[in-house]
Write a structure and sequence with these properties.
231 residues; alpha+beta; 5-stranded antiparallel beta sheet; 4 helices; elongated
Length: 231
Amino acid sequence: MKKMLSIAVVAGALLSVSTQPTLASAESALLPPKNSEAVTSSISMKDSETAWNKKAAEIIKKYKPGQPFSEEDAQFFRQNSNTGSGGVVTPAGLFGYQHGTFNGDAWITDTGSRVAFWGYVDTEFGILNHETKTNIMVKDDKLYSHKKLTINLHVTAIGPLGTGGTQVGIVADFDMTNSNENDHKLWQGKSQTWTAVPMSVIYTPKATVTDSRSETDITPPIEVTWSQTKP
């Protein structure tokens, strides 16, 4: 893990979005989810990491992009940038890669079927410009169609603000989303570039299954690893 970069920040600028491979090729490349019990046990996060991630989410909700954090809240992220943490929050660095994987599901009463939600997100970091890519699937196990399926990946980056970099705040905040109607599955393969000097990056995946009588969100935890070689 790298320490915080002490250079000026350009507040998060979202530059481009493009699609990636076809649905068929992406689905074959994704590992299919197991049953509900296996899905739960496949996520192993330390209690300290879970608590850290919960605290980080509470802080982020208090601020808008570009708004300086209080000194107490800023110190929370500065400490993470120096020591590192697991779970959904990991420090970024100069030239490197983050790879996040997740796997979850939900029982849909309208159709009496299980809908699985799984995939991965990769971010390649440069000095100021970074690229985040997704390969995500939501699918009904019984191939029952739903009124609407939606995939959303929310990305939040925390970093130094201003020319001096002495204040800390949200330097990038964006969603990668798509949806379809009257189908049993949906795939997302998107690419988005953004500009900032991040200390920490948080990924929040969510699938929403909408039917005539219900709307169900699937929000599994995500495990993120950092390396200086491409995943």
